[in-house]
Specification:
Blueprint: H1 6-33, H2 39-46, H3 50-56, H4 60-85, H5 89-105, H6 117-144, H7 153-160, H8 170-187
Length: 192
């Protein structure tokens, strides 16, 4: 048996980290299409073997939570990107909530995995970053004049939660747009 050199070990660690990211990205895509997709399909999409997938994520719940955590980590980062990309804060607000809704829809149909103590802890830990991100969007909308000052970002998240409940089809998208227009009408008034 030969001893591993530090360079070989470093290369293996980088490859393992790349495999982990590929698995999470594949899971996010496939869970969006079908929350009950077989994990072998995830491994195949990621370009790894089933053993590699299970070495990183021993259970389906572990993989679901890793995919969800990746979305949580992106929340704050995407606010600045969305604000920079859109011509108005209102458009940025709508786009960001569309992205959030898409990531939350991954949770639908995943059953027990999202009711475990680990999942509930992760969902609770997401509240702070989500509120901070929404606060930045609200501030931009207030500066633009599309939202009145004084609205609590946590209240807005609760209000916008309809987005991850509408049907994932054209009718649901149309319903979502109508509801967003209603939300903005209400947010133009100061909270009492």
């Amino acid at each position: 048996m030969t001893a591993e050199t530090p360079a070989t070990y470093g290369t293996q660690r980088r490859a393992a980290a790349q495999n982990r990211i590929a698995i999470i990205d594949a899971a996010r895509e496939l869970f969006t299409e079908n929350p009950l997709v077989p994990l072998n399909d995830v491994a195949k999409r990621a370009g790894v073997g089933a053993g590699t997938l299970y070495r990183h994520f021993p259970t389906r719940e572990d993989l679901i939570l890793a995919a969800y955590q990746r979305d949580i980590d992106r929340l704050s980062i995407t606010v600045d990107e969305v604000l920079a990309r859109n011509s108005s804060a209102k458009e940025a607000f709508i786009e960001w909530f569309d992205v959030l809704a898409a990531s939350i829809k991954i949770k639908h149909g995943l059953g027990d995995a999202l009711h475990s103590a680990a999942a509930q802890s992760m969902v609770a830990s997401a509240w702070g970053p989500a509120s901070e991100a929404v606060g930045r969007l609200v501030d931009a909308c207030v500066a633009e004049g599309t939202i009145a000052p004084g609205h609590d970002p946590s209240d807005i998240i609760m209000l916008m939660s309809f987005l991850w409940r509408v049907a994932p089809d054209e009718a649901g998208e149309a319903q979502g747009r109508r509801l967003i227009a209603t939300v903005f009408s209400g947010l133009q008034a100061s909270p009492e």
